[in-house]
Design a protein that fits this description.
The protein is mostly helical. It folds into two domains: 37-172, no CATH class; 177-385, Phosphate transport system protein phou homolog 2, domain 2 (Methane Monooxygenase Hydroxylase, Chain G, domain 1, Up-down Bundle). It has helices at residues 2-51, 61-71, 76-103, 108-120, 127-146, 148-172, 179-205, 209-240, 246-249, 252-285, 296-321, 329-353, 363-385. Helix 7 (179-205) runs antiparallel to helix 11 (296-321) and helix 11 (296-321) runs parallel beside helix 13. It is elongated and about 90 Å long. The two termini are 31 Å apart. Mean pLDDT is 76; it is low at 1-19 and 323-328.
Length: 386
């Protein structure tokens, strides 16, 4: 009855979860495009209205371009960082152009000096910064030769004004948050871990160890990409909370970000154990020593533990992500799965210790599998307690 219930729940999740995730992403992406478009228009018009009255020849294009760049930064913190880099690079480039024009005039020699200074004088700067300094200096070279101070003052002031306008719009008009993206990445990671655990459990129950052993190991190794993606999404979500005005009205959002970071640490530890289980099973399936093969009694019970662990892994993420709500069912499912698996774990450990399991030559394999499972349960238990 328990296995059939797990199968039904698993099948329903497999069918409905991708559909819901795809719908959420489509709606989220469309809404993001609309918000970015509106914010871009607001920043451009605001900058034009502020800069056009005092800029020479009524051409505030540099300020508008800077504002558009800043307002489309991925986070408020990123827009401030980009603004500081852009203004600094603009000032450095114009100063270099002014010095080169004074000493060498608008000649090929001045261009060579600018390129050398921009590339060699700032080793700590990124390649983009050095390129922006050099391009600004070269473009401004001729202009500074005819009107040095005017063409040094107005571009810097335009850049600064555009940066301030872009940052202000980005910070005050629906500043970007990426908590939904990090939630989705965590759920996808937990689903992948749970799917692999469930598949390994089903394969062991159906006597498919030799057939699927290396496939499980390949899937376990492929989890590294999901781990990297989830970590990047969580870092971006955490950065999006810095200096974000929406967090003032929604203080719970920051707590959610910390909770997601804790959930990721749990899943990262679980992924290590899942990979260890897959590696041990793959090695055992193709071990040439007959007495090293795992007994079917052990594999049957171990498959049940993997099914329970799969449910517990997914329950751990649900527990983290809705920890502040009144719905206690994910926590209850996690607690039940852990208790049932621990009960079986203690029973099978006693059987190994008393020598009741067959295949005594495979005890080192039993030990490896049980150790990984015990550590996996330890991570889950830690997540459950917190």
């Amino acid at each position: 009855m328990q296995d059939s219930t797990i199968f039904v729940e698993r099948t329903a999740l497999t069918v409905t979860a991708p559909v819901r995730a795809l719908a959420r992403r489509f709606r989220g992406k469309r809404a993001d495009h609309v918000v970015h478009g509106v914010k871009t228009v607001i920043a451009a018009l605001l900058t034009w209205g502020v800069v056009a009255p005092w800029v020479p020849q009524n051409q505030p294009y540099l300020a508008v371009a800077t504002a558009v760049l800043m307002v489309n930064a991925s986070t408020v913190y990123e827009s401030v960082r980009k603004a500081a880099q852009s203004v600094g690079a603009r000032i450095a480039g114009l100063i270099i152009a002014l010095a080169a024009a004074r000493l060498l005039g608008p000649t090929a020699g001045a261009v060579t000096v600018i390129a050398l200074i921009a590339v060699l004088a700032g080793p700590r700067r990124t390649a983009d910064d050095r390129l922006q300094i050099a391009s600004t200096a070269v473009i401004a070279l001729t202009a500074t030769a005819t009107d040095p101070m005017g063409h040094l003052f107005y571009p810097v002031l335009q850049t600064l004004t555009g940066a301030v306008a872009g940052i202000a719009v980005n910070a005050l008009v629906l500043p970007p948050l990426y908590l939904n993206d990090s939630d989705s990445a965590l759920r996808d990671l937990a689903d992948a871990l749970g799917s692999l655990l469930h598949d390994m459990g089903s394969g062991l129950a159906r006597r498919q160890l030799s057939l699927k052993g290396y496939g499980w190991l390949h899937q376990a190794r492929a989890l590294d990409k999901r781990l990297t993606h989830a970590e990047q999404q969580i870092q971006q979500a955490d950065e999006s909370l810095r200096w974000n005005t929406r967090c003032v009205a929604h203080t719970r959002r920051r707590n959610t970000a910390h909770t997601e970071s804790d959930a990721f640490k749990v899943l990262r530890g679980i992924a290590i154990q899942v990979r260890g289980i897959a590696r041990t099973l793959a090695d055992s399936a193709h071990d040439g020593h007959a007495d090293h093969h795992l007994g079917q009694q052990f594999l049957d019970r171990y498959s049940q533990a993997l099914h329970l662990a799969a449910a517990a892994v997914q329950g751990s993420v649900e527990t983290h992500l809705i920890a502040d709500t009144s719905d206690a069912s994910p926590r209850e499912r996690l607690r039940t799965a852990i208790e049932e698996t621990l009960t079986w774990h203690h029973a099978i450990t006693d059987m190994v210790g008393l020598g009741r399991l067959t295949k005594p030559g495979a005890w080192h394999v039993y030990g490896s599998l049980m150790t990984d499972l015990e550590r996996l349960l330890s991570d889950l238990d830690h997540a459950h307690k917190h």
